[in-house]
Amino acid sequence: MKYLIVLLAFSLLSQKTIVSQESMSVEDAIAIAMKHNYDIQLATNANLQAKNNKSIYNSGFLPSATAAADGRYSSSNATITNQAGVETEIPGVETKGYGGSVGLNYLLFNGGARKYQYDKLKNLYSLSSLQKKTQIENTLIEVYTSFYNVARNQEQLKTVTEAFQISKERLERVTAQQKYGQKTTLDILNARVDANKDSINLINVHVLVENNMRNLNFLLGRDINTPFLAEADVTLNEELAYLELLELLREKNNELQQWEINQSISRQELKINQAGWLPSVSTNVSYGFNYNDNGPAGFLAEQQTTGVTAGINLNWNVFDGGATKVRVQNAKIAMKTQELNQRKVQLNLENQLAKFWAEYTTQIAIIRNEEINVEISNQNFLKSKELFNLGRITSIDFRQAQLNFINTKLNLLNAKYNAKIAELQLKKFAGLLTNN
Fold first, then answer.
1. What gap in Å lies between CA 37 and CA 219, rounded to an integer?
2. How many Å apart are CA 163 and CA 180, to the nearest integer?
3. pTM above 0.70, yes or no
4. Ordered domains of the chain (ranges, CATH)
5. Per-residue pLDDT for 366 more than 60?
């Protein structure tokens, strides 16, 4: 009995703590996740890198400019012999010089590989943007699911706490009636077992609340022990139509759009490899100056040059041992592989959509039935409680009525949250989740 009282105090304290916590709506959770979720931040950084990579500065379309300068100095002893064979020694001959140049280099043509590579970089950026959007959708689904699990558990905690209180009152009543010979020791034992079961359920649900709260806090990118009260309101959208969702999936699903871009990238890879069969043409132009002081031992005392140099280069790898041929063949195979993967992914997505649609419609039907069952079981419980207090039914019959009432309430609660999560999954597959 003392154990049960401690558990009841624990449950009441838990309820009081939950009520005193800051309330959080699902919209609040989504807003926090969009700012602080680590996976979204990582996807954003990857997208920024892809944006930098598709810049004109990374395309090869701009020329390269170079500048160079140098300076020279030497001091040495020289021996000069003229045509008559006369030698003259000149000690400490100094020579010095300096020069510089600026130049431009530009690739005029490389078989079109540069253009296809640049188009590929732009497609990779588009792919990264879709991957970021997909990561956001996956994170939102996790946040929605965790949030509604917390809300579900907090509502379950209220229900099992109510069940425990009823069981405790029943145990107290049976104990009192046993003193007057109205109940037997067996009745007390049954009541105590049922109260213990309810107390265990209470502990288990409380653990679920704490675990799911930590999971949600992690997704929100904040201290996992931050307490909050999840708003329990669930509004279902019962206007969804399967055929419309299927059409939207084929048009707007982010995963399918990524495979379409991958197909485009494969075509560009093929053209890049085929460019290996064509020549490349480049040009360069430079302007430079050079000055030399040859000292007294030189034929010329000083020398200075300035001028422009230009050139054009043609390079054609006529035969590379078949390496380009192999790359082209593999690129063609990769295109077929991408096409097969795209069909496979689309079929898989349509299969998952059908499964979530079945889950969604099933839970909607369960909700309608359980709403009726809750009303009936509540009436049955209240009547059974009245008869039990009058001693006209056994404690086992009263317990059964209590269980029926509690279970129907929990079933209705689960059906509502299961339907909402299935609804959100349907919107995710149809590309509508970020529009909520």
1. 6
2. 26
3. yes
4. 1-63+113-233 (1.20.1600.10), 239-278+321-436 (1.20.1600.10)
5. yes
